[in-house]
Amino acid sequence: MIKKEVSLYFLNEKEALPRVHVSLVDDELVKAFSFEPLESSCYGERFIRWFEKNVSPVFSEFNFVFYGECQEYFFLYKTLYQRGAKVSLVK
User: Fold this and answer.
1) Domains (ranges, CATH) in the chain?
2) How far, in Å, CA of 20 to CA of 9, rounded?
3) Closest Cα to residue 63, out of 23, 34, 35, 29?
4) Taking residues 62-80, what's their average pLDDT?
5) Is the per-residue pLDDT at 89 higher than 60?
6) What string of DSSP letters covers 8-33?
7) How far is CA 27 from CA 3, 5, 16, 55, in A?
8) Average model confidence (pLDDT) for the chain?
């Protein structure tokens, strides 16, 4: 089974809570989203709920690739992996 690729771009912006730019490649189609948290607490959980609502609740279909400074997003990385997604880091 070919997994759909989701690129997560964590840009080093001057904002306290930077947006995550999400690019999804699905059947030769590229969809772009932007996830912007309202607060830092439960950041990973909020992203998971947002993804389930806006993209898909089945994480095992996806290959998530993290780009940029991602150290503080380890919880999100771990949660996606635990839900069956393939997860990679690119600096």
Assistant:
1) 4-90 (3.30.420)
2) 6
3) 23
4) 81
5) yes
6) EEE---SSSS--EEEEEEETTEEEEE
7) 10, 10, 35, 14
8) 79
